[in-house]
Amino acid sequence: DGPYAPPARELFSFIKSSAAPGDAVIFIKPRTMCYFTGRRSSVYPPSGDDAHFREYFSSIGARYLVVSRAFPLDARYLYGFVERNRSGLEKVFENGDYKVFRLKGPAKKS
Question: Which of 77, 24, 30 lies closest to 53, judged by CA?
Fold first, then answer.
């Protein structure tokens, strides 16, 4: 169960093989992501508009955004962001529990 469930293991395998070592991944459980993939990870801000989210993602060098309906906060914040920002995202992975989007454009890190 949890991070050992097949959908989570598929997610971590995809991130580990697709994300460069310096890429950051936005995920609601950043320590879990870091532990299983070796990639930097951060949770998204708990509130804000789309511009605030994009600014934060850029400031940490985020290249991937992971969303799941299993997490109520993802449904509350990220699914709307994804729908409104399709032109800046590319879906690169999906299984029964997770969707991964690559953030288009250069990742910047302050």
Answer: 77
For the stretch 33-64, pLDDT in tens is 999 999 999 999 887 789 999 999 999 999 99
Q: Which residues on adjacent β-strands are paired with residue 101?
A: 65, 91
Task: Indicate the pTM of the whole model.
Answer: 0.92
Q: Taking Cα atoms as reference points, which of 34, 41, 95, 83 lies closest to residue 64?
A: 41
Residues β-bridged to residue 22:
none
CA nearest to 29, candidates 39, 14, 17, 19: 39
Q: Which residue from 50, 52, 34 is spatially nearest to 42, judged by alpha carbons?
A: 34
